[in-house]
Fold this protein.
Amino acid sequence: MKPRTGLIGILQPIWQKWLLGATVLLAGSFAILSVTSCTQGATTTPATSPTKPAAASAQPSVAMAPAATPSAKEKASPAPETKLANQVTINVGYVPLISAGPLFVAVGKGYFDQQNIKVNMVKFASGAEMIPALSKGDLDAAYGGISPGLFNSYARDVKTIIVADGGTIKPGYGVNILMVRKDLADSGAIKSIKDLKGRKVSGATLGSPLDYFLRNALGANGMSLKDLDLVRLSSADVKVGFQNKGIDAAVATEPFPTNAEALGLAKKWMMADQFVSGNQFAAILYSESMTKKKDVANAFMVAYLKGARDYIKGVKSDEAVLNILNKWTTVPVQEIKASIPAFIDPNGSINIADIQKQQAFWAHEGVVKESVDLKPFVDTSYIENAVKVLGEAQ
């Protein structure tokens, strides 16, 4: 081609060089963008950090302590373990039963101390006695039974909240037991539930989980409490009742049946799991004031679930766990080993359907006067948070 002359001929080499440079520069930019994009696609995006629980006004702030290294399953929803920045003292109600073991183990192994919580343990003779103290805020938390007293308090809008499993009847975990006096069992005088008709039988405290078990066992056999010569003795007192032959049969919770059997006074006959399997007979309860201290409530639950998991593994064999249970219940270690334990869910899961079933049962029996919607009185957020911290137990 013939070279151009004039101004165009002068400018042509300049704009050709400029166009070539721009093309090279643009291609390089695309190459850089392409490499960057590929690199980003190969990198795992960090999980969003969970929201720190909001502390109530005038409550201690929360210092984040690193949680234990999670498994692959747990990495899907990590959560920081919350330790209170300042020590808090709370009042916790309990009854000295083996089934309250997770609470005792959490105290004995220092799991509450790790959360900067000082626990003032307050002893009660029964779970029913704790309800007024919880409603007034004298107790922050408690290990208590699911009972008509609790349901009746809900009808008065007492905000005692069920927050975690405290004991469930499952196959092999029939901690509540129907016993027969040894001489009557050996002679064959009592072979079936129907043989209890007209006999003196202890039904424990009115509305207790033991009372619930006995009524269901009778109902399954076409009977009711009206068919018995009913007396009401505590689990601790049935031994004397058998000893002086003042009762023929009784329902009691472990370790008292094991103790009575070891002394040759009675025989374990029927277990609660034969009639009320799935029965949520106890729970961890929070007062309304405790639920307003979200950071404290969450920290408490982390400690409790640690205790529950140790209890489940060690209630039959771990000397440290057994010694802690002995300290809080005064039950000899060998007797604890021989007793049937309660089932405690390692993730704290609550059988809400069974709690609703119990309310309906007691309403039918005339013990609960007014049934209420239980949803406002059950809060699973604390166990959900604790499971995120500790990882889900299998």
Observations:
- DSSP finds 15 helices and twelve strands in the chain.
- The domain at 62-170+278-390 is CATH 3.40.190.10 (D-Maltodextrin-Binding Protein; domain 2).
